[in-house]
Amino acid sequence: MKMLAMRCLVALSLLVAASVAFANPFKSKIIQSTDSALEITVPSDHFMKITNFTQDGGTDRAVVEVVLPGDTENGGSTNVLTATRIDFSTGANAQNAPEIGNRVTIAGPAIVKIRPIVGAKLFISYKKERDEGSEGGGGGGGGSPTAIPIFSPTPGVTPTPTATPFIFPTPFGG
Q1: Cα 96 from Cα 90, distance rounded (Å)
Q2: Which residues contact 52 (CB under 8 A, 6 or more apart)?
């Protein structure tokens, strides 16, 4: 009995270790109308994927606002995504059909802001990932891009057809 318990303990600890190692990196936040604005910083060598942004209640539409550091040309910020309404009992959209949610990917460096809406509950799911293409250099690492060989099934030199001379037989003796 002791041996069976030990085996079960080892198997359970392996499963727990695997679930921690491969845990889903998505994060979810609920923003109530009384909460402060949610700010998420995306570093320069990362990007952020928003897969779900919904709104329950309220009359105004919630938006995801992105602020790019040093961007004074566009006023410093822009709205990139509006919330998908899941409750149509209030507001101008009371008679509309259900909406389809969109996704967005935001490259860093950026600051993502979501402001609360009066009378609404907001829900967002997102994931921040490292930009594997930049290899974490962030522009100041001094690294150079690595050449990737491209193999092709066709040869590099294509032979061109040439005319082969045809020799006509000549009669003997004449």
Answers
A1: 11
A2: 28, 101, 123, 124, 125
